[in-house]
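Lab notebook, bench 4. The sequencing result for the construct came back, and we need a structural model before the next group meeting so we can plan mutations. Quick request posted to the team channel:

Model the 3D structure of this chain.
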Amino acid sequence: MSKTITMDELLASSNIKQLKQGDVIEGTVTEVKKNEVWVDLGPNGVGVVLRREISGIQSLETGKKVTVSVLDPELENGSVLLSMRRAAKDRGWDELIRLQEAQEIVEIQPYDANRGGLLIEVEGIRGFLPVSQLAAGHYPRVSGADKDEILQKLNALTKKTLKVRVLDASKKDNKLIVSEKEAVRDEMQDRFEKLKVGDEVRGVITGVIDFGAFVNVDGIEGLIHISEISWERVENPKNYVKVGQEIEAKIIGIDKDRLSLSLKQMKEDPWLHEVKSFKKGDTVEGKITRITPFGAFVQLSPAVEALVHVSEMSDDESIDPEKLFQLNEKKEFKVLDIDAEGRKIALSLKDSKKSK
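Done. Here's the predicted structure in token form:
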């Protein structure tokens, strides 16, 4: 007596793989209609791709091989419901995971921006490039964290080709995060190793803020602190440098992935030349530039500033510097001491009066 074989047993004993939702398979286009495409799946029968699930319908023609994803393995008419769009996305996630594991570098062109970063697409999957993951040359350095200015700088990066690495690719969470910083890290490290304190470098000002200016040195970020912009006293860095300006600076420090730079050290210190005009015991005229509880600062020449300590203002120990001086007021002082190495000059107001 022969044994009855079920369809499941027949499928199991053959080379035919029983389709299930989510499977990605290949087929051949047999018919292209206005709202659907029919696909020959070989041993798995025939399937249909509805218009909304078709990718690139204009390029489809009978006999073309296509990759499709199974949405429903068995419709009422016995066909398989398929999606070309889903298949493309599934392949995209597989490729993104491979790129992440291999740490490969890919090129992208951001299609939009918001204040948090750039909107991107890789392998058909949309993702995000956060501001924090931009390379130094593209990081939007703005004064006072102006959100509108940040967005303006980010918008300027859309449509530009950037090199990135995949930081996080999660099909389950539908999350794709990429990093430009990681893509250039190895290259930046090689450049860092060739630099040393004392080197003179060329760069472009990328941002001017209250405490200094940021510089792009061949892709490496540098900072010129306000104290290193000029030998003069700098109140506002924007009066000395502008965004986009090309400058030459000296490296005075290297810390992790940033350079500390100096503009003023590219020039001879004028203080050393001008201080030769003054000698201990001289009576000099100077302009009050700052008044503090412990004394007042006095400009003796364009580059030379001196200090008259509160103890050298008057024999009255309760003297208030703010009542004795006014900003930009000119007075005569006696030079008490000159420390050329420390770039300091001590003055006396009371001794100047006594010598008259």
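The mean pLDDT is 87.
Will bring this to the meeting.
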